[in-house]
């Protein structure tokens, strides 16, 4: 079976990755030709890929004018942070309330992700963002609720684009590591109220940083 991606799939993946990593920044107005040149395909598969991205809310198509990369809005930031508070707050509380063996296993995983975050402060913003995402994903998955895990995964693209924006400075990276350490310590101690407060404080700070950088 041929598993080679189609030209449309290649154009879709290329353009989406460029948007999520902010190579194509919010507010940029591009042409189909520019994207086609970047991917190395004709304009037809690019046009099909852009229609898919438009349904995801990442681009807006203007005939004869070009392709607008939709900026991250304050409303979107607020909605994503609110949803993350609900999902991650619940998941972290459940994790902290587990028995010693289950908590210990999760703490071991989270410690590894935290080490990756520390290393990534030198490796660059992209590596830091990915390590951060794995830390939070591990907590959500540990809750054992597949519906919540699926909901969290559905947010990951929006989170990635926002986090690329919010993790700009080394100072913010270091502060974020401290906040993750507090979450980890609360889970390790089995302290449900403390982990709830730590998760909410971390996400509120992230939301404030994202809003301030718009």
Automatic annotation (TrEMBL):
What's one GO MF term for it?
DNA-binding transcription factor activity
For whether the record's keyword set contains Transmembrane helix, the answer is no
PROSITE patterns hit by this protein: HTH_GNTR (PS50949)
User: What residue stretches are annotated with the HTH gntR-type domain?
Assistant: 5-72
User: Pfam families under this entry?
Assistant: FCD (PF07729), GntR (PF00392)
User: SMART domains under this entry?
Assistant: FCD, HTH_GNTR
Against InterPro entries, the record matches this protein to: GntR_C, TF_FadR/GntR_C, Tscrpt_reg_HTH_GntR, WH-like_DNA-bd_sf, WH_DNA-bd_sf
**Presence of keyword Iron-sulfur:** no
The name under which this protein is listed is DNA-binding GntR family transcriptional regulator
Instruction: Give the source species.
Output: Lipingzhangella halophila
